[in-house]
Amino acid sequence: MTAALEQAWFVAAMVKATTDMWEKGWDERNGGNVSLRLLPEDLEGFGDLPAKRTVPLSTSMPELAGQAFIVTGTGKYFRNVQLDPETNLGVVRVSLDGQSLDILWGYSDGGGPTSELPAHFRSHISRQIRSNGRDRVVMHCHATNLIALTYMLELSDANITRALWEGSTECLVVFPDGVATMPWITPGTDEIGAETARALARRPLVLWPFHGVFGVGKTLDEAFGLIDTAEKSAEILVKVLSMGGPRQSMTTDNLTDLAARFAVTPCAEAMELAGWRLANA
Does the annotation count 235 as an active-site position? Predict the structure, then answer.
């Protein structure tokens, strides 16, 4: 007997992740998108899964040929995913020539995957190379305090990283490679997808200034936890700035001791700074 795909673990996991993100306040209206790469064994037991329909890709993705993903839908509200997963989510597979996308399940109202799909797919390619295939999740959201910091802090990888490390002791341990920054680029374009992929080749977190954040991981929990940890630090920094700025903070020696205790190699550029800086300071 062929199992119903809506009962798959990855559908339930996407429902939980999107619900948690909405409850955090990161995904207002149709803001945010998530994709999870599926392995062949994830789809075993669900039959042949023929394409319900096929849509062209705006840019050829031969690197992802034959790979399957579960992806949030375009224009969909995360608050509604738990109510109707088959309308708000979809399972897709990249064609063998990398030119199109087969929709295998979901988007039952005739919709399609997120408009940020170019950024997701290019990010998956980048992280598969960087992680030797271990990273399977790309998560984008509008984390409030991280966005707020992009209006206040000098936008460089080293400066943003140093600020978040000092904002909460946990951060250096969770993301020792740091946070990447990039210029503001129009969302939903191949250009922002390419720039995001380049940034993710060097860091697991990327800030889109005045917009949001991209995080990656091996699992949905790992990607969510990465963003959640950075957002908690950003919230602390926003409160510190609202109180007039820090009077004391973690030192480079403190960060060095922390890295040694947890056997991580921290981003060298951030460690070389004496502290973090406000924009135009």
Answer: no
